[in-house]
Design goal:
- This protein has about 325 residues and is of the alpha/beta class.
- The protein contains 9 helices and 15 strands.
- Helix 2 crosses helix 3.
Amino acid sequence: MKAISIKEPGGPEVLEWIEAEDPLPAAGEVVVDVAASAVNRADVAQRMGRYPVPPGASPHPGLEVSGRISAVGEGVTGWQVGDEVCALLAGGGYAQKVAVPAGQLLTVPKGIGLVEAAALPEAVTTVWSNIVMTGKLKEGETFLMHGGAGGVGTMAIQIAKAIGARVVTTVGGPEKAARARELGADLAIDHRKQDFTEHGPYDVILDVIGGQYLERNVRSLATDGRLVVIGLQDGLEGQLNLGELVFKRASIHGTTLRARPVTQKAAIVAEVQKEVWPLIENGAVQLVIDQIVPMAEAAEAHRLLDLGQHIGKILLVNG
């Protein structure tokens, strides 16, 4: 098979389309012939040498795929060769084939194409595990999503709205603000012109920025508010006023999805299949895809992501 390799830490140009060994399914795994993958910020961090590959994971980037099962390992039940699936990965999605633990497989939702389904696993599991399973977002609460125009952001807006929350998001520019409102955001704040703290308090905040946002996030939390930090685009350090945290009875959660144990990922995937797939199939939650790029041209897809002008997901397609 062929796969994308990272030649050395650096810019998009370090991504190479090379010959690689075909994966074999271990016990409890299947092999998927990859129709498409998607580009995520974690892939960029890995490309730049800032996100070490978890032990045992494929060295090739790519945290989600869609495709067809071509081999089934020992002990796998409920799946067979030929099944169309999408899947959450610890790595290896930028390739023609990938081995996947069976517990991380999802069906392709009704009404969604096989290629387009690659936009779902990472964003949906990230959003659901963080705003619902960790953040405990409930109907009637106010939710703030930083970066509402990206893959996670566009999905978070819709899922939070489906739960019945008031949804606020920060975006960069009027076009992204308009699209966020179309997806259900009650308020889209251009972070270059407005301060999100003026529109709180927020019961749950999902933060992909980190760094200097920490102090303002905590300041804008409601009593019993929950801040969930999943990204560090602005850096590793921020100021924290413990008084704000204590007197509000607020909490801060830092989470990642990629390095979680297989059993934890399987539990998240099962809940997503049960709770979110019906919302996708009835149209309450929509896929937002910006561009589709050939897998061999992953460097161009990374360049587009680095520019930051996209809305939704950028997909990589084999074929």
